[in-house]
UniProtKB/TrEMBL annotation:
It comes from Roseibacillus persicicus. Keywords: Signal. Residues 1-20 form the signal peptide. This is Ice-binding protein C-terminal domain-containing protein. The keyword Signal applies.
Amino acid sequence: MKISLLAFAIFGSSVLSGFAASITFDNISFGGGNSVLLFDNSGAPLASGAISLYSGVAPTSFDEALTLSATAPLDRLVLDGSTALPGGLISGSFDTPNAGELTGVNLFVLISDESGTQFGAYDLVGTFTKADTPPPASAFTETFNNSSLVTLAAPESGNVQGDFSAIAGPGATDGAYGLRLAAIPEPSSALLAGLALVGGLVRRRR
């Protein structure tokens, strides 16, 4: 029997009174093989950290993501036991008081681990417009897919066997696409050699 729940990260914006906007999302999909699950750089399911909503252009490098993480997002959701389920599954919502911040602009989410040294990004394709009112009309609905994931470092993603036991019972697995967060780039071998040379010169002077 094929079990089909909500498609991964369906972003549905509904306009509330006062033109506030609520964007709900999750990656609770089982049985279709189209899930995009979240993992840290070591390959462990992401259990803590944050997912932040930004306007503008999604970062394409680790340095850009690091700079963005220091700025104030439109909204931010902390990943914990209530929002990050076992197996790299997530569920939550952004509640933006001013829908004008979302109107007609490119939106993306930046995913980070608890330490803020690992990142992943997803560029939303849909555009929110107030023309989709009156409430509770859906402003846009979007399903995460591989083509809209932003690569910050390689290799950081690939096919995995997803663990869906948290939502579909013990032993429930299915093929999925795993987004592994990009970690702080390690120093190049040339840089390390240069540091070793400097260290040797300092020791000789002493």
